[in-house]
Structures are given as structure tokens and as C-alpha cells.
Amino acid sequence: VQLQALEGGLVQAGGSLRLSCAASGRTFRSYSMAWFRQAPGKEREFVATITPSGGSTYYADSVKGRFTISRDNSKNTGYLQMSSLKPEDTAVYYCAARRIGSSSYGYWGQGTLVTVSS
After folding, report:
1. Which of 33, 68, 92, 96 is deepest in the core (most CB within 10 A)?
2. Could you report the per-residue pLDDT of 6-39, keeping only the tens digit for each?
3. pLDDT tens, position by position, 84-118
4. In 34-45, which positions are buried (b, 16+ CB within 10 angstroms) versus exposed (e)?
5. From residue 46, how far is each of 23, 62, 71, 74, 75 by CA, in Å?
6. Cα 14 to Cα 5: distance, rounded to the nearest angstrom
């Protein structure tokens, strides 16, 4: 599966933004999907993940209650709805996919920059 993260941008603190991750191929529903981010000068960190069916989600403590991960398998697209954004959320956001049964995320999008101004 090939992934393309879309729709980053500049937003003021306290604002909202939704990222999309468009997947190619007909087997998107066979993959768990996740979002990671990498802030300037920092290591890439986990943000959120969702199971292939969309039935279960899991979040990093830093975004819990503010971000919502979802997916639409009929559109081969995943989403990350971000609300109450903070300047420390500024980062390049990556979507990633992991095939059922795999232990690692083997498929990555190119990243999209989100900048939160104070």
C-alpha cells in the first residue's frame, strides 16, 4: 500500500485542523493505520493508531482528548482530527500502515507539516 498525507498547514493555537492520509490499493482494510510526528530537533514520536476495522483506537497521552483518529475504508482514507492545538504540536506528521500480523509499520507517507502559531 502507498500512503500520501495531505492537508497540513498553519493554524493558530487553540484552533483545529484535519489531516488526511490517502492510501492506494484495494487492501487498505487489511492494515492498521497510525499517525506519527517529528518536531524540529526531536525524534519521531507516536501520536495515534486505529485498527483495520476502525473499531479500536489508541492515543499518546500528549494528544489524548484533543486528537481523534478515524478511517473510511470505502474511501481508502485515514484521518487525524486535531483540536485545541498547541505550539508544541508543531511537527511534520506522517501516516503509516501496518499489515495484519506484522510487528512494525512498513508503509509510510511522505509527511505533512503542521505549524501552530502562538
Report:
1. 33
2. 788 899 999 999 999 999 976 888 999 999 999 9
3. 999 999 999 999 999 988 989 999 999 999 999 99
4. bbbbeeeeeeee
5. 19, 10, 17, 25, 24
6. 22
